[in-house]
């Protein structure tokens, strides 16, 4: 009989994202932004320890850049050392951002960390109570781009244990604005391969592509732009012979959201200021740190003039001046839609645009 196992599936940590172009952001908020990926890593480590998982899967793009920082390497090493104290294993692969040939720092990770250090599919056995209970399969990118389909190279062995595949790649054949099409695969290929769980990475929007078998994108652990709104985190997974359970766990320290505001009743600027503040309170349901993009609907000619002459920017600046407390809301930009006309876009907040 197979033993029950519990693990965390995460991907796309993007440690030490540079968040370029932040010169206009208040210093306390800027500090929060640059700490955010590291806080998500700490939250991940704490979750693994609190929930007493057997292991953690990190499926590519652990680091954000080819030239990785010393700070990022020290942070991940310390996290691994904490996990080692609780006998939690880590199975780690590298993706298009931190591919093998870009790395210059020695890893010197503790013995609980198992790195997929080839572009060929290999596996590690996960040992629990002196017996193998799972086999984890995967590969790392040797160079930035892996364009071939790797899914056909995954072959499950016949041991009566859990077989878990990790794959940093793209489902389907379509390119997108946010994600290059690397290591493309078809969902049908994964479902037919016989694995108990497919742990995916690369796409920053979490998605359960299949439940039988589980084929899951956890998304990234910390949003970095308005393209990455909502909660960000990982999946806590339990597998047994009788059931499987995968539960999303938020890890982010800063959340990106959009807030829609109807403006047709605006007649003067104080009224607009009050409505923006009230709408933000309605959009934000719980305390925390938020970057918010406003979507202004039914903009009149008068309000459009405020946009053109900078008056609306001044109102937003007044609101943003209070965004330096422990919990804050910062308006990073806005879109507007003219009444009975096409949508227009104001490029405020463009500094937070990122791609994977």
UniProtKB/TrEMBL annotation:
SUPFAM superfamilies: Metallo-dependent phosphatases. One of its GO terms (molecular function) is hydrolase activity. Residues 6-205 form the Calcineurin-like phosphoesterase domain. Keywords: Hydrolase. Gene3D superfamilies: 3.60.21.10. This is DNA double-strand break repair protein Mre11. It comes from Gracilibacillus boraciitolerans JCM 21714. InterPro entries: Calcineurin-like_PHP, DNA_Repair-Maintenance_Comp, Metallo-depent_PP-like, Mre11_N.
